[in-house]
Amino acid sequence: ASPAAREPTPKAGPPRPWGRGAPVGRRPLHAMEMAAQGPVRVLAVGEGDLSFSRALQRRFGDAVRLTATTFLGRDELVARYKSAAGAIEELLQGGASVCHGVDACLLQEDLISDGRDATQDIVVFNHPHLGEAPGDSHSPDSEHVRRHCSLLAHFLAAARRLLTARGQIHVTLCGEQPALWRLRPAASCAGLSELQCRPPA
Fold first, then answer.
1. Which end of the chain is more exposed for a tag (fewer CB within 10 A), N or C?
2. pTM value?
3. Strand 40-45 to strand 16-20: parallel, antiparallel, or no bridges (unpaired)?
């Protein structure tokens, strides 16, 4: 899913963490607690101009082993976002991996093609969106809503296969999207339990 074209939506809250097999209500394991055992492996999915990944690397430095992915190929990404080329260079210089043409629903297939270990402590998908916003986008029976329900369900299933034993998936959505796009049922079907839900800041 490409985050390049997003539907205008209300202000978003922080990511909603989901854990692999963790009981509902358990306190989320903070990234710095994970870092006590070594760098936290973070996978950022569906990045646009890579500003989130760049900010994450600047904030946590060597405490994070970051893999930033984009749905767009590198050439299209750089042509669309003026800041992308600089962000890619900074991320690579800081030790992050940057992968282009990665499908959020086929993470394992796209990330382990070179035989490397793709397991992650945290998988983040900020504002998943398929890029179109028809007039009926708020109708529960619309094709728009059905497609985004499918996107979330396939992403969560794909991301879960990459998680470590106490790994987390963080999803950022806006307004009524969590309910309309059936985030909780999709997470439950993927074998995930909600750790925390934060309202808009």
1. C
2. 0.82
3. unpaired
For 48-88, the pLDDT digits (tens) are: 999 999 999 999 999 999 999 999 999 999 999 999 999 99
Question: Edge-to-edge, what's the strand order for the sheet holding 64-70?
Answer: 97-100, 64-70, 40-45, 120-126, 163-172, 16-20, 192-194
Token representation of residue 148: 């985004």
Paired tokens of 147: 């497609």
* CB contact at 8 A, 27 and 114: no
The secondary structure of 125-160 as a DSSP string is: EES---S---TTTT-TTSHHHHHHHHHHHHHHHHHH
**Interatomic CA distance for residues 98 and 106, integer angstroms:** 16
What gap in Å lies between CA 68 and CA 70, rounded to an integer? 7
Looking at domain 37-190, what is its CATH homologous superfamily?
Vaccinia Virus protein VP39 (3.40.50.150)
Contact 41, 65 (CB under 8 A): yes
Tokens of 120: 């992650």
